[in-house]
Specification:
single chain, 6 strands, alpha+beta, globular, 202 residues
């Protein structure tokens, strides 16, 4: 794996589909596909922060426990994921049985047995809005420091792409909205986008 990721072309190839993504959902799907392809975890999840309810949500779940975990909420700060969300620091745990930060609540409710974990924050400008978490490797081996470094790079690409999608969505809504009435105005939107002066940037 070390040789594979010493080549910067890998990150260029990762960036291409993310650059084309137009929605947050599309971005998340691309990221999670790449994670599964590269690391081959048994379970992998992306949790997003719900600020209003002070909780973390399993927003994208792939693997054996998908149906049981999708949409599940955890109290902010709970477990290893909670620590990552609070501190913004990545964590690698080779044996959760020896780590006091591990919360067995999910394992107890699903019957799954977590052995090793790596998790990295999704953040931009120190604003943490999510965590990517990988549980157990299919091979039974532990996750490595190199894999953690690679996952951090993927998370950085993902965070930038997600932020861009949010901005794109916000700008689109602003263009569709009449600033006086607050109502949608599609004619205004088309004129704004395709007016010759706008296209020329003047």
């Amino acid at each position: 794996m070390d040789k594979q990721f010493n080549n910067t072309s890998f990150f260029i190839e990762l960036g291409k589909p993310l650059a084309k993504a137009r929605t947050v959902k599309e971005t998340l799907n691309i990221v999670m596909y790449q994670v599964g392809k590269i690391f081959e975890p048994v379970n992998w999840s992306l949790l997003l922060k719900d600020i209003k309810r002070n909780e973390m949500i399993f927003s994208v779940v792939v693997g054996e426990q998908k149906k049981q975990l999708q949409g599940t909420r955890l109290p902010m700060g709970k477990g290893i994921v909670g620590r990552i969300m609070e501190t913004g620091h990545s964590i690698i745990v080779t044996d959760v049985a020896r780590d006091d930060r591990f919360c067995p609540m999910i394992d107890e409710s699903t019957g799954f047995q977590t052995r090793s974990i790596i998790g990295v924050p999704l953040k931009t400008d120190e604003k943490i809005f999510g965590v990517i978490e990988l549980i157990n490797k299919i091979t039974g081996e532990n996750f490595t420091a190199m894999e953690l470094t690679v996952l951090e790079a993927i998370a950085e690409y993902a965070a930038i792409a997600i932020e861009r999608c949010y901005y794109h969505h916000t700008l689109k809504n602003m263009a569709l909205m009449d600033p006086v009435t607050g109502l949608k105005n599609r004619i205004r939107y088309r004129c704004f986008l395709f007016h010759p002066k706008r296209l020329l940037g003047i």
